[in-house]
Amino acid sequence: AQSVTQLDSQVPVFEEAPVELRCNYSSSVSVYLFWYVQYPNQGLQLLLKYLSGSTLVESINGFEAEFNKSQTSFHLRKPSVHISDTAEYFCAVSDRYNFNKFYFGSGTKLNVKP
Amino acid sequence: NAGVTQTPKFQVLKTGQSMTLQCAQDMNHNSMYWYRQDPGMGLRLIYYSASEGTTDKGEVPNGYNVSRLNKREFSLRLESAAPSQTSVYFCASSEGTSGSGMETQYFGPGTRLLVL
Lengths: 114, 116
What we know:
heterodimer; A: 114 residues; mainly beta; 0% helix; B: 116 residues; 7-stranded mixed sheet; 11 strands; globular
């Protein structure tokens, strides 16, 4: 089974500062990679995903993530955060050979301060 | 469209009691999932259903049963609740049955369960 490691449980940052949320996964087997965001008292919603092609993927609200196969990483970045980005972010991996099974990291709480 | 709905939103049970968590989706999705979310552990898959009439175990199935009642509904049952089952439960759905792992999952708002 896969394992997903999110190294930081909490990341405090000031508004308009850059942020990086780190994610590493365990297996070298071909995988698909996802970032989900959870706002308070809500379910998770997809932020972005990597399936194939360009290793840099972007979301509509300014986040981007880069797939690094050699380092088995999929870190999430934003050059300038807003108060509204305060949420918990989950990295997830699906195994191409293990039907529809997704493995989630433990989450990183991003707290954007004014 | 309501997306994925879950009932109840919050429930308190005593040890040994049973209950069923309900989930429904109106997106005509084929696959549905039940996860539990515990602090510091992210989401763990309990059961999933790739299509109507089929269910399979996930990572942490012990103590749970599921029913895929029809294409829209997927319920999770706790036959004899234990304090270790205190958690937030999320239902999710995705479009296909291909098992490709590429699909986006759509999540409900969650059910908070407290077992005393």
